[in-house]
Amino acid sequence: MAHTSDTLIVKSHETWVELTLNRPDRLNSFNDEMHRALYAALQNTRESGVRAVLLTGAGRGFCAGQDLGDRDPSKMTEAPDLSKTLTTFYNPLIRLIKSMECPVICAVNGVAAGAGANLALACDIVIASDTAKFIQSFAKVGLVPDSGGTWTLRHLIGEARAKALALTAEPVSATQAADWGMIWKALPEDEYLAYARRLAEQFGSAPTVGLAMTKAAIQAAATNTLDEQLDLEAASQKICGQTPDYAEGVSAFLQKRTPNFTGKRS
Q1: Mean pLDDT in the chain?
Q2: Could you read off the pLDDT of 116-147 as tens digits, one per residue?
Q3: DSSP string across 29-86
């Protein structure tokens, strides 16, 4: 089932949902309406028990970041307070994606620039067309990478590369991004989206609690000590070991059959 708005296409499947940014004439750059639509759709999937999310963009690009047409200095009487845009829209969106209790996949076509690049990199698994490019375009307009960019880049590719990309705004090809570990895979234009959809379908029938706790544990490892991480693993394993999916997975393994996971906690 598909629901199309002016800014977002929501296509629901049995166990997963595909969200498509839908401002192709503006390279899917964000305005307030698209912010609200995407956040609401993600919140709805969280509350409905969807077991995987696929995020992509309509047209020739994934997302060019903020629509700068809304920030034209010649049409403004005073300088904008950009922190309000971050605290109202981008920061809650990144936090929501990171806290989703299911995998969030991003399929990137064309350009992913500015906040659009960092939105993609905030997702759990990024699949890109080999024609895609990731650009930290903030330096071109005198800004700091936001939407978690300064944190995400540093953790994904290290300080030297993070600083160089942020300071130069040099585009990174999808192939280079995959080689560096910024993203999972760069695939041909006619394959990347089909692969991402198959992955969402796979996660839609997987042991969701275990996947969610794996995601959370790996994210926590960015700041935890080894001792803290060992304790977190033990606590997580206790919860996972009490789920129906653990019992089903072991039974299916012993009986040499395909497991039927429900994704339920109890």
Answers
A1: 95
A2: 999 999 999 999 999 999 999 999 999 999 99
A3: -B-HHHHHHHHHHHHHHHHHT-S-EEEEESTT-SB-SB-GGGG-GGG-SS---HHHHI
The confidence score (pLDDT) of residue 46 equals 87
> Is the distance from CB of 67 to CB of 92 less than 8 angstroms?
no
DSSP codes, 71-112: G-GGG-SS---HHHHIIIIIHHHHHHHHH-SS-EEEEE-SEE
Label residue 138 exposed, middle or buried (CB < 10 Å: 0-12, 13-18, 19+).
buried
Pairing of strands 172-173, 111-113: unpaired
Q: How many residues comprise the chain?
A: 266
Range in 68-77, 179-188, 215-224 with the lowest mean pLDDT: 68-77
Handedness of CA 178, 183, 186, 189 (dihedral sign): negative
State the amino acid at position 248 in one-letter form: E
| d(C-alpha 195, C-alpha 176), whole Å | 19
User: Phi then psi for 30, rounded to 5 degrees?
Assistant: -80, 130
**What is the H or E stretch that residue 226 is in?**
helix 226-241
d(CA 253, CA 59): 43
Q: Which of 132, 155, 112 is nearest to 21 (CA)?
A: 112
When mean pLDDT is compared across 78-92, 123-137, 150-164, the lowest value belongs to 78-92
Q: Write down the pLDDT at residue 5.
A: 76
Are the beta carbons of 58 and 20 closer than 8 angstroms? yes
What percent of the chain shows pLDDT beyond 70? 98
CA distance 47 to 222: 27
- Give the pLDDT confidence score for residue 78 in this predicted structure: 79
